Amino acid sequence: MSKMMSRYADGHSLEYKSYSPSTSPRGRRYILQNLNYKKKKQINLDKSRDKEYFDIRKAPPSTGSVASNNSTSKPVGTSNKVMPTDSPRKTPREPPVYVSPRKDIKAVKTPRKESPEKNNTPMKNDKNESGKQTKNELGLTPRDEYMVTKLYDREIIYLKPSEVRYTHDQITAHFQDGRSMISTFIALLYGRAEIRLGGNDVPPIEVMQTDELDGGKSEKIWYVVNGNRRLYVFKRLEKCGALTTMQVVARKYDSIEMDKHFLTRNKGRTVSITNDAAIGAKFVKEVSKWKEWKAKQPAQKPGVKGKSDKGQSNPSKKQPGLPSQTNKSNCCTIS
Questions:
Q1: Domain segments of the chain: what residues?
Q2: Residues 6+ apart with CB under 8 A from 169
Q3: pLDDT, tens digit, 9 for 90 and up, residues 95-142
Q4: What distance, in Å, lies between the first and last C-alpha atoms of the chain?
Q5: How many Å apart are CA 103 and CA 69, to the nearest integer?
């Protein structure tokens, strides 16, 4: 039988029973020799690339400071590195030089320039002599008026709820803060809350005016872009005769903003409530209770202010641009 060719360089045949070359002394010796061969080959290759190559471990110790590490005596690729053999030395600091200030020159203190808009900006706690916040003819404090007109470039106007249309087809019976529409309706119905900016009352809705064809005629229509649930409550108040006009925030028409909110398929004439089928009957029940309560209230003489009219303007005086009402609140017209 012919002798089989040897697999390893040391000459042992394949008949040697071992699972791995590293488990036998011969296999380990072969692996070490192979690794040393690769190292030598790499060193020779580096020498051929750069004749100035030398082993880093045999580099002479540097006598200079850290700043001398950028010299050309560094090995290749280590010009910007601090070698282990370098001994960095701290350069002595120069003594500080003290300059005495001149007495004939003095710093001029320039007064701070304040912008006129900052001085005219009404603060949150602006109050009159009696301690109450002053309000204009629209029922707004100077701070609220500044926030709306100056910062957001919007206008506060008065509209009837029937003049504004929805932008959604479906709404839920609860607001985002968890309050139900029926509880808000009751609070507005009995005068416990108002439609106005600021405070814990019901904020006004935001509307945009569009110019579109309705019935073959070009007509300007108001659409609500923020507050479809509030508009539903306001329309219910107008239907029962408790609300005539409401305060709204008019925004400039923006086609992108309108397209984002415009989800109605009947041009905003009606809206349905998804999660409460009996909410219509609840509104009718509360309106009947309110009418019975209102009938029991004593009638007030004209020109005499009651407790509910405390702090309100004289109803006999008409405000410019607004219809005369028997009971005018700061935000809307309550009958």
A1: 22-56, 135-297
A2: 263, 264, 265, 266, 271, 272
A3: 776 666 666 666 556 666 555 555 555 555 555 555 566 666 656 666
A4: 122
A5: 48
